[in-house]
């Protein structure tokens, strides 16, 4: 059974940093691409970043490119999201997700992810 557990959220002032972690239970973590999404109140879920199985390829949304970094440690079954230069508009619930192995569509498409964590809240104040 696959479970994803995010941590590391919190409140920070604009310009600050946070690092989110997502620990994945279950077998075969290193075989799957992973992604991070976020959802702000009243808004749709938004793709943030994706990393392939080895960590050798990453994709970012334009809204976070240059500020956020996705990484993974396959020995620890963990994917990370380092968030720097945070802005108030980054305030949202952040979710990690496992990309379905059969998905051949866009990396940013939420329907391509088959397991999701419960989310961790990030609040950025101005």
Could you name the key traits of this structure?
126 residues, mainly beta, seven-stranded mixed beta sheet, four-stranded antiparallel beta sheet
Short structural description:
With 126 residues, this protein is mainly beta. The chain has strands spanning 3-7, 10-13, 18-25, 34-39, 46-51, 58-60, 68-73, 78-83, 92-99, 113-116, 120-125.
Please, could you describe this protein's structure?
- This protein is mostly beta strands.
- The protein has no helices and eleven strands.
- Strands 2, 4, 5, 6, 9, 10 and 11 form a seven-stranded mixed β-sheet that branches. A four-stranded antiparallel β-sheet has the order 1-3-8-7, with no helix packed on it.
- The chain is globular and about 40 Å long.
- The model has no long low-confidence stretch (mean pLDDT 96).
DSSP strand count: 11
Helix share, percent: under 10%
* Count of helical regions: 0
Using only C-alpha atoms, the radius of gyration works out to: 14 Å
Roughly what is the average pLDDT, rounded to an integer?
96
Beta-strand percentage?
Answer: over 45%
Order of helices and strands: EEEEEEEEEEE
Described by strand count, sense and barrel closure, the largest sheet is: 7 strands, mixed
Terminal CA distance: 41 Å
Unreliable stretches, pLDDT < 50, 5 or more residues?
none
User: What characteristic shape results from the CA principal axes?
Assistant: globular
Strand-pairing-aware structural class: mainly beta
Task: Describe the secondary structure blueprint for this structure.
Blueprint (H helix, E strand, L loop, with lengths): L2 E5 L2 E4 L4 E8 L8 E6 L6 E6 L6 E3 L7 E6 L4 E6 L8 E8 L13 E4 L3 E6 L1
Parallel strand pairs: 2-11
Antiparallel strand pairs: 1-3, 3-8, 4-5, 4-9, 5-6, 7-8, 9-10, 9-11
């Amino acid at each position: 059974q696959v479970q994803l557990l995010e941590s590391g959220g919190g409140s920070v002032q604009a310009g600050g940093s946070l690092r989110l972690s997502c620990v994945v239970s279950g077998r075969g973590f290193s075989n799957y691409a992973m992604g991070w999404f976020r959802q702000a109140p009243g808004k749709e879920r938004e793709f943030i970043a994706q990393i392939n199985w080895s960590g050798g390829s990453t994709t970012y949304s334009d809204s976070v490119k240059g500020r956020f970094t996705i990484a993974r440690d396959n020995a620890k079954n963990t994917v990370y999201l380092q968030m720097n230069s945070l802005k108030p508009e980054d305030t949202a619930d952040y979710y990690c997700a496992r990309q379905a192995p059969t998905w051949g569509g866009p990396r940013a498409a939420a329907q391509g992810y088959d397991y999701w964590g419960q989310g961790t809240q990030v609040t950025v104040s101005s």
